[in-house]
Every structure is written in C-alpha cells, then in structure tokens.
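Quick start: read one record
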Amino acid sequence: SLLSSLGELPAELAFCLATGNTARMRELDCGLIEVGRSADFVLMDKAQHSPGKNILESVQLGDLPGIGMTIIDGIVRTQRSRNTPPAGKVPEIVAK
C-alpha cells in the first residue's frame, strides 16, 4: 500500500510487483496460478472500515489489505489474520 499511495503506482500493479513478476524473475514455484505450481494463496479483501470501495481503492488510499485466509501447499493454514486489519468479507470453506 505504501508504493501505491505514496508512489502513485496503481494498486493492481503493486500486487503484480509483489507476486507473479517477482516469481518469474527469481524462477520461483509460486506467485502465479498455474497447474503444477505450489498452491499457496493469501485471500484478501479491503480492510473493515476502510474508506475505499474495494481492495484496490483501499490499497491506493494507503490501507493494508484485510487478510481473510492463508493457504499453503493447498491446506488452509490461517483464517483471519491477527496482524492486519480484519477483511471486510471473510472466505468460507465449503466442502462437498
């Protein structure tokens, strides 16, 4: 959010710099959603009470995203983060 709010970088590009582009440059098995890659995800939404209308606008305003769930190696490792503001919408696990 710092790059986006102070550096006038669009929020979606800030996320790209932190994920897929970094993975490509460092030849890492993460950062992209593709068959055969690690199933590691951070599910985010705008933080509760953020003045932004959505996560991109919230980050553009300088707010941290709300973390709703962390999945590592395809397994849910954490739900609501204790170290970031709560997510506006919390992911729900639906099993068949």
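The helical segments are 2-6, 11-18, 20-26, 55-60.
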